[in-house]
């Protein structure tokens, strides 16, 4: 089937869900700020978002977590893209 967009949307949802799980694991605002700074976020933005009271799912789609936990981060953690796998299977 020709479904590259379905795999792309699944990839996006999986990464958002993983960001949400990591954000939930960090629990305390102090830990969130510390981890965001360690991932290269500026001190002010890390403090702003680390102390946010927005829900986990909403924060998971925030631009700050997109930059901190980007595709390169997930690749280094061993997460493989469904879209890339689809493309490799289609080209054979």
Note the main attributes of this structure:
92 residues, mainly alpha, 74% helix
What's this model, at a glance?
By secondary structure, the chain is an all-alpha fold. The chain has seven helices and no strands.
Tell me about this structure:
The protein is an all-alpha fold. It has one domain (4-91). The protein has seven helices and no strands. Helix 1 (4-26) packs antiparallel against helix 7 and helix 2 (29-38) packs antiparallel against helix 3. The longest helix is centred in the first third of the chain and has 23 residues, at 4-26. The model has no long low-confidence stretch (mean pLDDT 93).
Q: What are the segments in which pLDDT stays under 50 over at least 5 consecutive residues?
A: none
In total, how many beta strands?
Answer: 0
Name the overall outline: elongated
Strand content: under 5%
**End-to-end distance:** 15 Å
Q: Helix amount, in percent? A: over 70%
Class by SSE composition: mainly alpha
Taking the sheet with the most strands, its summary is: none
> What's the SSE pattern?
HHHHHHH
**What's the number of helices?**
7
Q: Give me the Rg, rounded.
A: 15 Å
| Domain module tally | 1
What topology does this entry show?
Layout: H1 4-26, H2 29-38, H3 43-50, H4 56-60, H5 63-68, H6 71-76, H7 82-91
């Amino acid at each position: 089937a020709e479904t590259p967009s379905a795999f792309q949307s699944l990839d996006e949802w999986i990464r958002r869900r993983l960001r949400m799980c990591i954000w939930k694991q960090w629990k305390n605002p102090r830990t969130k700020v510390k981890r965001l700074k360690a991932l290269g976020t500026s001190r002010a933005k890390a403090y702003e978002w680390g102390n946010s009271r927005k829900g986990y799912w909403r924060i998971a789609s925030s631009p700050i977590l997109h930059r901190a936990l980007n595709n390169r981060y997930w690749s280094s953690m061993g997460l493989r893209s469904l879209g890339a796998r689809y493309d490799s299977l289609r080209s054979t």
